[in-house]
């Protein structure tokens, strides 16, 4: 079985977050500054080395001026029906 961090739902969430960052014209460093964290946090999330929790997703969505539900929808639509915890 594949690692859950590499599953389609996780990849869709990462892709949506990357697209949101790019559409707002932010670099990873600028996003990190908005989040008051290190650029390496953003890089690790975007590369799939690190998962984010629900609260982090809300904070990320706010940094883009978006509602977290758009990111949840992207992940939900891509998650396999038989995905195991």
UniProtKB/TrEMBL annotation:
A molecular function GO annotation: DNA binding
InterPro entries the record matches: Cro/C1-type_HTH, Lambda_DNA-bd_dom_sf
Transmembrane segments: none
SMART domains the UniProt entry points to: HTH_XRE
Ranges where the HTH cro/C1-type domain occurs: 17-71
Pfam families: HTH_3
Lineage: superkingdom: Bacteria
PROSITE patterns documented for this protein: HTH_CROC1
Name of the protein: XRE family transcriptional regulator
Native source species: Pseudooceanicola atlanticus
